[in-house]
Amino acid sequence: MSILASIKLNAGLLFKQAIPVQPCLLCGVMSDAGLWCEDCERSLPYLRGPSCRHCALPLTSGEICGHCLSNPPRFDRSTALYAYTFPVNKLIQQLKYGDQLALADAFATRLALRIPTDELPDCIIPMPLHPNKLRQRGYNQTLLLARSLSKRLDIALLSDVCKRVRDTASQSSLPYKARGKNMREAFACDVSLMGRKVVLVDDVYTSGASLNALAKAAANQGANHIETWVVARTIRHG
Fold first, then answer.
1. What is the pLDDT of residues 130-143, one digit of tens each?
2. Element (H, E) at 214
3. How far apart are CA 113 and CA 109, in angstroms?
4. Half-sphere exposure of 231 toward its Cβ, with a 13 Å CA cutoff?
5. In the chain, pLDDT over 70 holds for what percent of residues?
6. Does 56 map to a domain?
7. Does some domain include residue 31?
8. Of 53, 138, 189, 196, which is the most buried if we count CB atoms within 10 A?
């Protein structure tokens, strides 16, 4: 074994030893691999195959899905880490409503590995919460995700340039087709983004209505290329 390889191996062992042994969030076995064990990590529904460049929907052929061809979103590209199904949906709910804030960094660590480092955006904008919901929840999980991604990829975090100006009904409580109307004019950006390449960060992409409305607000301030990065993508069947 070369000296360099030996150094890397020893560094990896030291890093693993530094992770505290704790119960896996998914199966409960004691694990030194992080918030979930290595067996559960292998079972997670990663999206690895071809997908629509606009909305990250898995595809069997082509680069753009039929919906995005007929209704192009206001953003240019999307990256999703997982399918929004068990057990990822439970983990995201624990992050969003269960105060499991360490999950934000765990998700961001894995999502950052999906991002080509030669095509990084100029800035990251998290999906804003309305002040009423922020007071109820106490934190914005997408800001935690965006902050971790910003540090890992060395991208400027713009946490306050876009605001949710309407306290909309929860998207998950609405029929799929009603979500676009619910998000109409829900966001406003008060800082120029002229000529900048922007990425919007959210936890879940379902209909894309929230991200599309936020992208419209960013485009109105001059953003010339907009991407979305999400932890999970809902896969609609039929």
1. 999 999 999 999 99
2. helix 209-220
3. 7
4. 32
5. 85
6. yes
7. no
8. 189
